[in-house]
Amino acid sequence: MRVIVREVRTLSKRPDWSVIVKEIEGKMDREAKPLAIAEFDKVIKGWSLDLKFKATKRIRSDEVVLYVHPTGKDAFIWKILSITGSGLYGPKHAKYEIKPKATGYPLRFQWGGPGSYNPKTKPVAQYGGPGTVSGGTERRFMSVMHPGIEPRLFEPEIGKRLLPRFRQIVRNAIRIGKRKARAAGV
Q1: How are beta strands 117-118 and 132-133 bridged, if at all?
Q2: pTM of the model
Q3: Can you list the pairs that 81-88 forms with residues at least 24 positions away whose Cβ atoms lie under 8 Å?
Q4: Across-strand partners of 127?
Q5: Which of 23, 102, 104, 123 measures 20 to 30 Å from 5, CA to CA?
Q6: Per-residue pLDDT tens for 20-44?
């Protein structure tokens, strides 16, 4: 996820920008990062995966950027679900065949026909489903064709939802930093 805040206005008197940047860094670490990670954790609540999120910040003279990325052994699953396809937020992941790992043993799973599976997440960042099959019975197949995966687009949706709060955090940090710079007599 990349959230950009660009609102640094030209000031009549030039303050000590190092004081302002230090304040922005502190606010990002104390408020913005935990807020973003909590939103991402809401998506994976109930998933039985080794998956966590890490946030990093970048502060330049014209922008403040917060990056959130998955970490852990199962981070690749997040990437497949959220940004499938060749490019960022690419097209639907193509159909593929699933075969058993051990030869001679069929795949076993609950199935109630097409449309019986209610996923935990759906395209366009809907999450919180049960991840269960309704009205299913145990079926056995030597191979099945997976219908493919549509990108869930979690990052843009979470970014849109959090952007107003991030702007407020950065504005407050700039205002506090300017006050501190003036108080220091710089």
Answers
A1: antiparallel
A2: 0.73
A3: 81/121, 81/149, 81/151, 81/152, 81/154, 82/151, 82/152, 82/153, 82/154, 82/155, 83/151, 83/155, 84/149, 84/150, 84/151, 85/151
A4: 121
A5: 123
A6: 889 999 999 999 999 999 999 988 8
